[in-house]
Design goal:
The protein is of the alpha+beta class. 25% of the residues lie in helices and 20% in strands.
């Protein structure tokens, strides 16, 4: 799984107060995060997939529309569910708690005050439910960790699927396509003697303020010097990608959508990870398979924009498959220039040549990473 960081809390030390942990996680949960930035464009000219034969007429049309048409996708802004933030806070507060052996005369370490605190009991239930779904998380979340952080990862690739053959679609909707993206919230718990080297503050050792011989090197604190034994950001990311994860929310089975965004994806990006069967169908409907008949882009409907003086303007996903013509405030135009595709004209029912209309379904999973 290829993942990239979308957001993260600062590293939290074991001596961080509970209020500090709660504040850091609240900042992560409450903040808006821009998702799908790598797929949203904007796009001036779509790259065509090298996995399929490209007819010369299609290539010429795409080149002719370059500079006359721009595809703009809506910005996908998402927020993490509040319940996920509560789970992360409970897990981190437990892991960063001091590791204290229970007294011999009492098998339980639960105090009377804790037993009466509904929030404490709810936090313990959340952690217990996570451990039941991720047994490996039990050891990682045991008290006594030295530092912890929470990182939200976004997948970097789209795997596009087409609607099954024989499934009727609403006219004039184009052939349906969707891609499920599994976002990962990693609860990273470290038991090394210091924070990750990439997270060390830049002013930990003010070299410009101290002469080189001010202190002997063996007198410096061990947790202020980067060592090869401490994990780097790259090592944490690799461990987070390889760690087992459980779907969120739990108990519903399958992929529960976290968010849904409809995007116009360039052909090369949409076809890059299609399986062979899906790719063959995609080639057929776009006129690059057998038979070579385009029933997706309807390229002939775009040919008029190759005439001198014609322009398209911008195209957004909600322009596609809009069957109702909206009246123009200025009445019928006598200009020879084709109108831009704005909110006052008919959008048509076809996807711009070289793009795929994809419903991007974001799902969320939780992983616990021990470093």
């Amino acid at each position: 799984m290829m993942l990239t960081r979308l957001a993260a809390t600062p590293p939290l030390r074991a001596d961080a107060p509970p209020a500090g942990i709660a504040r850091a996680l609240a900042d992560l949960v409450d903040a808006p995060h821009r998702a799908l930035a790598h797929a949203a464009g904007p796009w001036l000219a779509p790259p065509l997939s090298p996995r399929l034969v490209t007819p010369p007429a299609l290539l010429a049309l795409v080149r002719a529309l370059s500079g006359r048409m721009i595809v703009t996708n809506p910005t996908a802004v998402v927020r993490l569910p509040l319940a996920v933030g509560l789970l992360a806070r409970a897990a981190l507060q437990r892991a960063l708690a001091p590791s204290v052996a229970p007294p011999a005369e009492s098998p339980s370490t639960e105090s009377v005050e804790d037993a009466r605190d509904v929030r404490v009991r709810a936090a313990r239930r959340r952690v217990a439910a996570l451990e039941a779904r991720l047994p490996a998380a039990t050891a990682a979340l045991a008290p006594g960790a030295r530092w912890a952080t929470v990182i939200l990862y976004e997948p970097t690739t789209l795997t596009v699927h087409l609607a099954r053959e024989g499934v009727a679609r609403r006219e004039p909707e184009p052939l349906q396509a969707h891609a499920v993206l599994r976002y990962r919230l990693a609860l990273v718990v470290g038991r090394a003697d210091a924070l990750p080297t990439d997270a060390l503050p830049t002013d930990a050792l003010p070299t410009d303020a101290l002469p080189t011989d001010a202190l002997p090197t063996d007198a410096l604190p061990t947790d202020a010097l980067p060592t090869d034994a401490l994990p780097t950001d790259a090592a944490i990311d690799a461990a987070a990608a390889a760690a087992p994860a459980t779907a969120w929310p739990p108990g519903r089975g399958g992929d529960t959508p976290w968010f849904l965004r409809r995007l116009l994806i360039p052909d090369a990006q949409a076809a890059a990870h299609m399986d062979d069967g899906t790719l063959a169908r995609w080639g057929t409907v776009t006129g690059r398979g057998m038979p070579r008949h385009d029933s997706y882009w309807f390229s002939e409907s775009w040919e008029r924009f190759r005439e001198p003086g014609r322009h398209v303007g911008y195209v957004a996903p909600d322009y596609v498959a809009r069957a109702r013509r909206l009246p123009s405030a200025g009445g019928p135009s006598t200009s020879l220039v084709a109108p831009a595709l704005d909110a006052t004209v008919e959008r048509g029912v076809c996807v711009p040549p070289g793009y795929c209309l994809v419903d991007c379904v974001g799902t969320l999973e939780v992983a616990v990473v021990a470093c």
